[in-house]
């Protein structure tokens, strides 16, 4: 009998077994990376490290908070904490003003728009958190930011919070087509981030070893810098006409404010009514979900420097304010806008740029902010049974 085919069958069997073992090894390796690979360097491939830090702090607070009062907003509400260097600033101020300890957590998400805030509130309730009161701080940019445009599902806040919360979702939540597609999308994104992170790491190692720049742009810029500064002599000693430190600081601040106003001009103009309508709908969704979970809401419009407000075309601020108030009233949310509240005045000197309060501005802001909260109907309904 012919025995020719037998070695072929054995070879095919061996190849098949090797293929199965290889696939199993690759799957096990991928599972290991999925479970243990550090997420932060992957997130920082597309998002600035400082923004990733704030977004990850938000995700952690969403998981861990037990505070009955949560203050939400962007870097505008976070600025006083940094200026005064007091991590528990709002809890201390509110507790002192109320006369009783009031556990308070701050969810400050730099660059967030209202759709991000709605997402964070949804995650709060999804994690079983039921605060008595949410203080939602806002500004016009939260509704009309041209820099974010229509990329509301991939903003830094949403991406990082989703990435942290869904890292362990190796399998789809259900067998529905939408859940399966979401799961596949998560794995595709994770695999792509791994690939890009490894390639960047290898490139950086090669550059360090060889001394070559990472890109042609870096090389050209370094070469130009060396040629321009090759014959420059060390600076002479300062003369009586030298610029003082105060003058340097003032010039630097003026330059910083000018750049900030240019940035906000792009964010505000041209005004996109459709984009604002979408963000207003997210505000409506946020308040509806809070009402469903019996959580009171107080909205507080954050103060802006006069120079910043003047960038908004005439009539638009008033139209936006009116629409926000209608939505707040629909869901029984209290609202106070510190830009229009009688007796409250902030000047350009109260800001480090055009929107973030300076140390001086923070000290002016805090008493008004505490008063807005403690005197609001939302606070009264949330803490009707105050301790005595």
Layout of helices and strands:
Blueprint: H1 5-36, H2 40-43, H3 49-64, E1 69-73, H4 75-84, H5 89-98, E2 104-108, H6 114-126, E3 133-138, H7 141-144, H8 156-166, H9 177-210, H10 216-229, H11 245-268, H12 273-292, E4 296-301, H13 306-309, H14 316-330, E5 334-337, H15 359-374, H16 377-382
Helix pairs in contact: 3-8, 4-15, 5-15, 6-12, 12-14
Describe the structure.
The protein is α/β, with parallel strands linked by helices and 388 residues long. The protein has a domain at 68-156 and 266-382: Rossmann fold, CATH 3.40.50.1110. It has 16 helices and five strands. Strands 2-1-3-4-5 form a five-stranded parallel beta sheet, with helices on both faces. Helix 4 (75-84) packs across helix 15, helix 6 (114-126) packs parallel to helix 12 and helix 12 runs parallel beside helix 14 (316-330). The longest helix has 34 residues, at 177-210. The protein is globular and about 95 Å long. The termini are far apart.
Report the principal-axis shape: globular
Low-confidence stretches: none
Give the biggest sheet: 5 strands, parallel
Mean pLDDT: 84
What is the string of SSEs from the N terminus onward? HHHEHHEHEHHHHHHEHHEHH
Number of strands: 5
Name of the CATH architecture of the domain at 68-156 and 266-382: 3-Layer(aba) Sandwich
- State the strand order across the main sheet: 2-1-3-4-5
Distance between the termini: 101 Å
- Put simply, the count of helices is 16
Please indicate the percent range of residues in DSSP E strands (runs of 2 or more): 5-15%
Features:
Rossmann fold; five-stranded parallel β-sheet; alpha/beta; 16 helices
